[in-house]
């Protein structure tokens, strides 16, 4: 069966420090991968998505970046964190199923990021 | 692009009552409509979904209905229980689009 791993679960970082969050998926090949951010009590904001290795699309201009160095690995990074980067970061994957219709997203457990 | 409106933003019910959450979408090409439940501090989890070729789908106490003409779909929870308390998100996506558009969420509170 497919599983998604996301770490760390909690992170406290000072303003201006770098960031690296990692997500890996097991049990499937060539998944669609996504990074979302969720502010406290708010909805899901799509940050990045990827349909293949090295293919990254950005939805919102920001000081964050994403990379997909391997088929089932998705990394969210920042060179200098801002206070506004605080939030709950969720990685998700879905099965690309051409001809079978859209498929649901499966979310990781999330990383709660606090910027001090 | 697609726009999904979700109402109400907060819903408070007594245990045993029914709860209904409604979403409307703008793109008539959307054909896949999942619902996610997010408990406090946890990840969103798929609870039910419906495709545009059916009008209703049930799974025990939850059901989803779809009205393609009116471009709206609803989540129905019967015999609510305190463990149903969570934030519920609807979403819509079109054929060939792997980017769903989410509603803003509904906070459901079930009072024992």
Question: How far is the first residue's CA from the last residue's CA of chain B?
Answer: 41 Å
Strand content of chain B: over 45%
The SSE string of chain A, one letter per element, is EEEEEEEEEEE
Instruction: Give the strand tally of chain B.
Output: 11
Radius of gyration of chain A: 14 Å
Give the integer mean of the pLDDT values of chain A. Answer: 92
Please count the helical segments of chain A: 0
Helix vs. strand class of chain B: mainly beta
Percentage of helical residues of chain A? under 10%
Radius of gyration of chain B: 13 Å
Question: What structural keywords apply?
Answer:
heterodimer; A: 116 residues; mainly beta; seven-stranded mixed beta sheet; four-stranded antiparallel beta sheet; 55% strand; B: 112 residues; six-stranded mixed beta sheet; five-stranded antiparallel beta sheet; 11 strands; 58% strand; globular
What is the gist of this entry?
The complex is a heterodimer of chains A (116) and B (112). Chain A is an all-beta fold and 116 residues long.
Describe this structure in words.
The complex is a heterodimer of chains A (116) and B (112). Helix content of chain A is 0%, strand content 55%. Chain A has 116 residues and is mostly beta strands. In chain A, strands 2, 4, 5, 6, 9, 10 and 11 form a 7-stranded mixed β-sheet that branches. A 4-stranded antiparallel β-sheet of chain A has the order 1-3-8-7, with no helix packed on it. In chain A, strand 5 and strand 6 form a beta hairpin. The model of chain B has no long low-confidence stretch (mean pLDDT 95). Chain B has 112 residues and is mostly beta strands. Chain B is globular. Chain B is built from no helices and 11 strands. Chain B has strands at residues 4-7, 10-14, 19-25, 30-38, 45-51, 56-59, 62-67, 72-77, 86-94, 101-102, 106-111. The relative contact order of chain B is 0.34. Classes of the chains: A mainly beta (116), B mainly beta (112).
């Amino acid at each position: 069966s497919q599983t998604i791993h996301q770490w760390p679960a909690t992170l406290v970082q000072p303003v201006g420090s770098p960031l690296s969050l990692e997500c890996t998926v097991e049990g499937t090949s060539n998944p669609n991968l996504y990074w979302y951010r969720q502010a406290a009590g708010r909805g899901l904001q799509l940050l990045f998505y990827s349909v293949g290795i090295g293919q990254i699309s950005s939805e919102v201009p920001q000081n964050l970046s994403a990379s997909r160095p391997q088929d089932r690995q998705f990394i969210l990074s920042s060179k200098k964190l801002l206070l506004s980067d605080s939030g709950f970061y969720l990685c998700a994957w879905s099965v690309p199923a051409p001809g079978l219709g859209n498929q649901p997203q499966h979310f990781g457990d999330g990383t709660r990021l606090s910027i001090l | 692009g697609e726009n999904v409106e979700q109402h109400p933003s907060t819903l408070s019910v007594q245990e045993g009552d029914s709860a209904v959450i409604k979403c409307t979408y703008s793109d008539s090409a959307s054909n896949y409509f999942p619902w996610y439940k997010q408990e406090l501090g946890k990840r969103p989890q798929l609870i039910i979904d419906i495709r545009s070729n059916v009008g209703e789908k049930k799974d025990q106490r939850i059901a989803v209905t779809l009205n393609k003409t009116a471009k709206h779909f609803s989540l129905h929870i019967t015999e609510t229980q305190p463990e149903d308390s969570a934030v519920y998100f609807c979403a819509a996506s079109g054929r060939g689009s792997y980017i769903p558009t989410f509603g803003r969420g509904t906070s459901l509170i079930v009072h024992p």
